[in-house]
Design a protein that fits this description.
Elements lengths: L1 E2 L2 H4 L2 H11 L3 H11 L3 E3 L2 E3 L12 H4 L2 H13 L2 E5 L2 E6 L2 H18 L4 E2 L4 E4 L19 E5 L3
Antiparallel strand pairs: 1-6, 2-3, 4-5, 5-8, 7-8
Length: about 150
Amino acid sequence: MDMAKFFDTVNHSKLIEILSRTVKDGRVISLIHKYLNSGVVVEHKFEKTEAGVPQGGPLSPLLSNVMPNELDNELYKRGHKFVRYADDLVILCKSKRAGERIMKSVIEFIEEHLFLKVNRDKHRWFILIESSFWATPFIKQKEKSVSVFILKVL
């Protein structure tokens, strides 16, 4: 599953809301909020940043994993077996039909609760045993014959 322009479209309010559940120091939250809204210089012109996470900065790795972590927690809660690395997500399913149902509900969660858009053209199905997919080494041997769909979500 692929999230369309993930780094450029992260909703600042949602990100601050999620961070505020864990980080109780309002000064830290305020600094992060100012960092998110500080703007960028593109081709010698200043542009305001009303959405998105700055890339290449000291907080980029941390902030870019806050939203995916929310998705991880939701998938754990639902009992799904999955592997995620950065913005790539693989969900193991027993059948294509089950995968379609899961995909529909996961896309709904991402778009309605995380306020991110999913690129519906980039997900695909395959039988894991027949693939040289990057996540294969992380999946138990007995599960490698199940249908899998890659959801480029993030």
